Fold this sequence. Notes:
The termini are far apart. It is elongated and about 140 Å long. 49% of the residues lie in helices and 11% in strands. A three-stranded antiparallel beta sheet has the order 1-2-3. A three-stranded antiparallel beta sheet has the order 4-5-8. Strands 6-7 form a two-stranded antiparallel sheet. By secondary structure, the protein is mainly alpha-helical. The chain folds into three domains: 47 residues, no CATH class; 81 residues; 174 residues, hpI Integrase, Chain A (Orthogonal Bundle). Helix 6 crosses helix 7, helix 7 packs antiparallel against helix 9 and helix 7 crosses helix 12.
Amino acid sequence: MAKKTPSGKYRGRVQIGVDKDGKPISKYVSAKTRRELEQKKEYIRHHYVDGHPIREDLPFYQYAEEWYTLKKEPFISDASRSAYRTMFNKHLLPAFGLRHLRAISAGEIQAFVNSFADSSKSQITLAVGTLKALFASAYAEGIIERDPSVSNIRPKAKKKTERRALTDQETENVLHTIQNHEHGLFLAVLYYLGLRRGEALGLQWGDFDFDEDLVHIQRDIDYVGSTAHDGALKTAAANRYIPVPQELRAMLSKVRGFPQQYVFHTEEGQPWPQSSFKRIWLSLMEASYCVEEREVTKATKRKNDIIKQLKPTLTPHYFRHNYATLLFEAGVEPLIAMKILGHTDYQTTANIYTHLKSEMMKKSSVDMEDVFRRKQEAKGVLAKAKSAKEKRSRKPAVDASLPWAGRF
C-alpha cells in the first residue's frame, strides 16, 4: 500500500522476485501522486517481471522515425511512402517534432487535425490515421500512460469534385487530338480502355494479345518525387483483362514494339518521369481546348513556363469516368463493368451506375418537359388557328324578310 512520506511524495514497493532463500526481492518507487506512483510500479513490473525494458519518454520526431521505419515503411508501396514523407515533413514534424510524446495533449492533436478541415478526404485520413497509429504504438510500448489521439474528431473533408463524362464538344476535340497529336496514343488508351493513370503508364507491349483483342493490366507506375517506379496495382482486382476496340488496335499496330518495352517511354526506354508526364498532359489538353489560364503574379517563379500559365480542366480520371459512362450506355451489366474497371467493391460500380441512372432520369425529365411544352405551344397555335377559321367561316346575319334569305 502506498504511503505518503514527509516530503509529500508517495512511496510504494513492487515485488519483482525472490532470492535463493525465498525472501522477496523488491523495488521501491516514489511519485508526487498516487496515479503516477501506480504507473511507475507498472513500469517496474513490465521491466523486471515481464522482461520488457522500461522505455523513456522520447521527442516526437525520434519516435516517429522509429515507428515509421519498423512498422510502416516495409509494408507500403513507393507511392504511399512518398505520401507519408510529405505528411511528416510538411505537417507533423513542424507541429510536434521537438515535443516529447508525454507532453502532447489531446487538445493539441485535435487543433492540429482541425487545421485539415476542407482538405481532401485522403489527406485527412492520412493525417488522422498516422497520429492514431503512432500514439497507439507508443501507448502499447509503455512510453505514454494514455493515448491522446483516441477521442479525436475527424473534420469534414472538402466536397469531392464530381467526376463527369466528357461533353459532346470535348469528345470531338479529344478524338481530333488523338489522331493528330504526337502523344495522341496515350489519350487514346485512356479514352478506349478507361485505365487509371499509373496503369496506362505501366503498359508494355507484351501485355497486349492482338489475336484476342485483349490487354492484360498487371502493373502500375508510381511517382516518388519526379522518378517513375514500377509499383503494385491499386488492388488485386486491378489485375484484369480489358477488351481492345478496333479503333485503338489500329493505332497500336502502327507503332508496336518489343514485348518488354513500355508503350510510353523516354529515349532510354524508361517510363515517363513525372515532369515529362505533366508537360505531355498539358500539351494534350491544350490541343483539346481543355485548359484554363492560371493566375500569374509577381511572386510566380518561371512566369514564361507554360505550366505556370495554363491548367488542364480535365485529369486522366475524367476519362475513366467517361469510360464507365460508355459501359453504362452500352448496357453492360454492373458485375461485368466491375471486372473491366478493376473495382474491388461492387458498391463502387453500383454507385456510378446509380448516379448515371439518376442523371439519365433528370435528362429524361427535362426532355419530357420540352415535349409537353411543345405540345402545349402547339395546342395554343391550333386553338388560335381554329378561332381564326371559325371567324372566317362565320356567316353574316341575314334579314329573313329579304328575298334571298336562306338561299345561300
